[in-house]
Amino acid sequence: MNFLSNINIMNFPLWKQWVNNLPWSRKWFVFLILMRPIIDNFYYLKEKSPFYSPLYIVGVLTPVFIIFTFVFNKPRHLTFTRTDFLFFTWSFFLCFNCSFLLFNYPSLEMLGHVLKILTPMYLFLYLRYFIRSKNDLVKILQTGVYAAIIPAGILLYEVFFSPIKVGYSRGIKRIWGGYGDVTNYAVYSLLTLLIIGYFLLLPKRKIFYSKEILKVILIVVLCFLTLLMVAHASSYAVLIALGCLFFWYNMKLKRKRGLIILLVIVIFSSGFFKDIYKERISPLLSREMIIIKGEGEIESIAHGRGRRWFPRVERFFSLPMTGYFIGAPVANIEGSSILWTGNPHNDYLRILFLTGLFGLFSYLLILRRIFLSSTQLPIPERFLVFGSLLVVLFYSVATNTMLYNSLLYILLTIFAYSCLPRLNKVDEKYSKPIYKLFCPLNRVSSGKISLSATYKKPSSISFE
Question: How many angstroms separate the CA atoms of 458 and 74, rounded?
Fold first, then answer.
């Protein structure tokens, strides 16, 4: 019996059967997750031409596929929750400001930039259609683990043979393959750890099987090796937060297997921790420690990102009132383009500049709503949702979380699952039906179209 097989987890034949049974309106997204780590390795082709870049091509085709999905397939009934309302509110501010960007700066490059900005909006909308049960969630998570095999293989090649690309940060050697930056390696590692942690918290028929436990330990050790090689401070913060959350829920459930794995990792790493901290972690924190002691400039915080943050914040609040409430693109005054063309390496500031105070407030309310609505979930799913929120909250301080598609594919899947009506007990009495996405018509049958005055929960949606 497979260690993770109580609800058919990490069972490749059953996963393959699930994929084969999916209609093409859903199957293409599974292939997209699997192909993403390969596509991301061609990041630098965009410098030659957008037409040569797989990233640009996929960026354009993804919304096209989503539109085709809703146009040529009968959308299922959905229940409108508060999370959906807040997400659509934030999406309004995104679309409103992006329309100004396209109007004022019409170009192919700006179109690609706008499509990238709008990815969370149309991806979440699609995943609300895709995710219908716990089995869908589990299979997508399983797909995410399979996709992580590709960056793991590339990393091992770089470690044992020849680095594809090497960079240095504060004197630390870092490798990142053909990816745009080291965060890609870290993202796949942390998502794998989050998914494996969720699987370990699920109820099993047996405590553990030695062969399967060794496989899980091997995966976890490989993820830790990846994080050490990338030397990324934000990823270390996320790792510590996820580790604490996993330990807490293991204690609540009294799950021996998770504690055993955590104990093995701690024992294994304790002998190397001093050298690891000295060589890979301490240099990352040296500048921050100097600032804390009052001996350095505050602008040097977060690996010098403060030099990007403070001037942009000052410029933002010098905009007209419409600019800092609704978004800088609406103001469109001279010199304000730096707020959306430059990379602040902080997603909170990026969203603030792009959608204004109203947009940032809506975004934070989405995260709060997901947290509150997930407190009613079973502990394994609660760990999954809370862990995803921690990834977003910590990463957004020093990276642009909502622009990493490999991260969004998994995180938005988890958030979409938390919106399923029978799970979202907090919202049930406030929920209203969405009859059809992009279409007010509710029922299409035998070639006749008719409006439905009442809503019935569809029997085709299963909740496990």
Answer: 13
Pairing assessment for the beta strands 443-445 and 448-450 based on DSSP bridges = antiparallel
Tell me which residue range forms the domain holding 108.
Answer: 12-450
Residue 66 binned pLDDT confidence (cut-offs 50, 70, 90): very high
Q: Amino acid identity of 258?
A: G
DSSP conformational letter for 172 = E
What is the rounded distance in angstroms from the CA atom of residue 227 to the CA atom of residue 67? 37
**Does residue 231 contact residue 284 with C-beta atoms inside 8 Å?**
yes
pLDDT tens per residue across span 187-217: 999 999 999 989 888 876 444 455 566 777 7
The average confidence (pLDDT) of the chain is 79
Contacts with 241 (C-beta within 8 Å, 6 or more apart), sequence order: 390, 394
- pLDDT in the model for residue 143: 96
DSSP-assigned beta bridge partners for residue 443: 450
Q: Is residue 364 part of a domain?
A: yes
Q: Which single residue is written with the structure tokens 């993202």? A: 187
Rounded Cα distance between 54 and 275, Å, is: 40
Q: Among candidates 326, 284, 280, 329, which has minimal Cα distance to 305?
A: 284
* Tally of domains within the chain: 1
- 3 domain-assigned: no
- Number of residues written out for the chain: 464
Q: Does the residue 461 lie in any domain?
A: no
Question: Does 2 map to a domain?
Answer: no
Q: How far is CA 164 from CA 13, 155, 160, 167, in A?
A: 34, 9, 12, 10
Place of tokens 């209609």: 23
Tell me whether residue 384 is exposed, middle or buried, using C-beta atoms within 10 angstroms of its C-beta: 0 to 12, 13 to 18, 19 or more. Answer: buried
Phi-psi domain of 459 (left: phi exceeds 0; alpha: psi -120 through 50; beta: other):
alpha
The secondary structure of residue 36, as a DSSP letter, is H
Instruction: Please give the model's pTM, rounded to 2 decimal places.
Output: 0.84
Residue-by-residue DSSP string for 326-339: H-HHHH--TTTTHH
Query: What is the rounded CA–CA span in Å between residue 219 and residue 83?
Result: 34
State pLDDT tens for residues 293-344. Answer: 666 666 666 666 777 788 888 888 888 888 889 988 888 776 666 676 667 8
Predicted pLDDT of residue 200: 84
188: Cβ contacts below 8 Å, ≥ 6 apart: 37, 147, 148, 151, 152, 226, 406
